[in-house]
Design brief:
Layout (H helix, E strand, L loop, with lengths): L4 H14 L1 H21 L3 H33 L2 H7 L4 H30 L8 H23 L5 H18 L11 H7 L3 H15 L7 H26 L1
Helix pairs in contact: 1-5, 2-3, 2-5, 3-5, 3-6, 3-7, 3-9, 5-6, 5-10, 6-9, 6-10, 9-10
Length: 243
């Protein structure tokens, strides 16, 4: 691990914890969203089928948004520039922020999973701990994607505009609303380059078919590879994005 990454992560964690409004929203927003989704699908069989896709999608969405906005705030306040002027590497910064934001993204996805299973009553067949491990890989990729994307935004409005550009197409082409196999062939090819496609497929296999992590090894490998690639890209463009 880069030598200064944990120090940077600790600073990020302390800063977010001091922001009480953000902490309340981190807890409240997933509860409200999952409550609305549960009320929209009162039929148990439909809820069971849609639950894995919603868990993966909301984890990606919340983690991307939390990281992107928070990282952009670090840049606008000059914190990132001061870090870059200190004896730390760009990889230190990316990994440090990854760990810092990851804890809060993990808290949100934990709320989503527990609320879906124990409050909404969604049935599942796989092991709960394997669901969590698979989810951690999804949110790790979402966090690095948020860091990478935020380097191209100059303000919060621009960052929000990346949501329909990056997140919305994945919702429509990841097999959430209808099977990928029923889409036009060119959309099927596009869906193969979207990380949410593999997140939804892997989580459905675990929750609906009782698969284990070895059974979804291909999906895990793709998501881990996506996390590594976006981390490298974020470190590569960081100095330009921080200027």
């Amino acid at each position: 691990m880069p030598s200064h990454a944990l120090t940077i992560a600790g600073r990020v964690i302390r800063q977010l914890i001091r922001d009480r409004r953000t902490m309340v929203l981190i807890i409240l927003v997933p509860l409200v969203m999952m409550g609305l989704i549960g009320a929209s699908f009162p039929d148990e069989s439909v809820l069971d089928y849609i639950a894995p896709a919603m868990i993966a999608t909301l984890a990606l969405f919340f983690s991307f948004l939390l990281t992107g906005i928070s990282f952009l705030r670090e840049r606008s306040q000059g914190t990132l520039e001061r870090l870059m002027a200190s004896p730390v590497t760009r990889l230190d910064v990316v990994v440090g922020y990854l760990f810092g934001f990851f804890l809060f993204a993990l808290a949100q996805t934990s709320i989503i999973i527990f609320f879906t299973i124990y409050v909404l009553g969604a049935n599942f067949m796989g092991e709960l701990w394997q669901i969590f491990i698979f989810q951690t890989v999804i949110i790790a990729g979402a966090v690095t994607l948020g860091i990478f994307t935020s380097t191209f935004a100059r303000n919060e409005f621009q960052m929000v505009q990346f949501i329909p550009l990056i997140i919305t197409p994945q919702i429509f082409m990841a097999g959430i609303l209808w099977p990928v196999e029923q889409m036009p062939e060119y959309l099927q090819w596009l869906s193969k380059i979207m990380p949410l496609t593999y997140g939804v497929e892997g989580l459905r296999d675990i929750m609906l078919a009782g698969a284990n992590l070895l059974d979804v090894g291909f999906e895990l490998a793709v998501l881990i590879g996506f996390t590594i690639v976006t981390s490298i890209l974020a470190a590569t463009v960081l100095r330009r994005g921080a200027s």
